[in-house]
Task: inverse folding
């Protein structure tokens, strides 16, 4: 997660059971990120997703009846209750750090958290991305 200017401030990774589609896995990851952020009283941050479907669904006021509908309703509720929380769409090619963390998260049995400083497995990548035009 980044602050409202896009700078790193915290990340969490882990694996989810019973996610049988990439779309559902992405939606569950967004929901769990927002729950985690809310539990820690984070404010004014952006949560990034590379799924344009999830991004659009989070802005749709209608009840979502799709396969990820309940998860999307949870996401909308969480976004409405956390001060300054926004969900943004980021193209996969511009979101390399989160994919590295997600892949690593598949290999751990418990969730892993990092605050203030990014994990070493992505710190070089974040530095590179911050100087790119």
Result:
């Amino acid at each position: 997660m980044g602050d409202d200017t896009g700078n790193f401030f915290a990340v969490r990774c882990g694996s989810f059971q019973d996610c049988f589609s990439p779309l559902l896995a992405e939606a569950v990851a967004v929901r769990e990120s927002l729950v985690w952020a809310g539990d820690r009283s984070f404010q004014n941050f952006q949560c990034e997703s590379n799924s344009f479907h999830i991004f659009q669904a989070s802005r749709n006021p209608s009840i979502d009846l799709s396969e990820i509908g309940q998860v999307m309703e949870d996401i909308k509720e969480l976004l409405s209750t956390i001060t300054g929380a926004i969900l943004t769409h980021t193209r996969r090619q511009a979101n390399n750090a989160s994919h590295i963390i997600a892949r690593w998260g598949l290999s751990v049995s418990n969730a892993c958290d990092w605050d203030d400083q990014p994990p070493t497995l992505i710190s070089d990548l974040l530095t590179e991305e911050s100087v790119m035009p």
Remarks:
- Residues 49 and 89 are 5 Å apart (CA to CA).
